[in-house]
What does this fold into?
Amino acid sequence: MSNLILTTEKQGVFTISLNRLDKKNALTNDMYKQLCQHFSYSEKTTSIHCVVIQGNESCFCAGNDLNDFIQCSDNDELAALEFVKVLSEFTKPLVAGVAGAVVGIGTTLLLHCDMVIAANNSKFKLPFTQLGLCPEAGSSLLLTQKIGPNKAFELMVLGNIFNAEQALNYGITNQTCQPNELLALTADVAQAIANLPVESVMTSRRLIRQANKVALSQVISDESQAFSHLVNSQECKDILAKFLNKVR
Ligand code: COA
It folds into this structure.
């Protein structure tokens, strides 16, 4: 396995660190596959009581690798969609520590986390429609539940950037911190969860999330179908080609 994703396992906490910083931790198909394996491993390993997902103090994740979107064809199963399924069905406590770019799936995956710590240099963005795409990872349900349809439209259709303080007010994150405090604070939160009675924590998590279970699975399926259609449209491919020429 490449080292674009690093993991550690210590005292009941399994930590997944995105490690493609030169590309702002944009997630490739291969990285999604690795993430799926790590989540499956965490799910079935009884000594793991809490999982952390993080980047570093300057960057969390710039979303899906746009090159992969361009290259995918009608017949391709997007690894991102499998990751979303695994993430949405995960049953153990999930903690995220974010900073810098928190874009696309970098933001929507947070909606499946139980605790999110954001450094105050974080910049959140959901540029779906600017790319000719639509919301994913259940965000059309989960974000709308948090902030209502009008604000959800503003963030997911206009794609306005928002900062750590706004993310806290929207209920996407639990707390903010200085960038240099991020990794230690995230580790502390995860350790505190891991030290609690395991069955009690997992039962509580299930109860907190169960009202959404059926609706979420339907929404993810609808989003995935729409997303797969849009990502193969000529309009989307033209936008991505233009964007990549600009950022390259
Ligand atoms: N896919 C592929 N490559 C990406 C990427 C992505 N989503 N995001 C960043 N990169 C690459 C850039 O192409 C650049 O590569 P290079 O050094 O080979 O030129 C490198 O990462 C650094 O990015 P850069 O744009 O120079 O950094 P920045 O700090 O100025 O801006 C972002 C950071 C995240 C705001 C900007 O890169 C961006 O908007 N990325 C695209 C985000 C996106 O639309 N994601 C998809 C959501 S569905």
The chain is about 50% helix and 15% strand. The pocket of coenzyme A is lined by residues 23-24, 26, 62-67, 101, 103-104, 127, 131, 247-248 (CB under 6 Å). The first helix runs from residue 29 to 44.
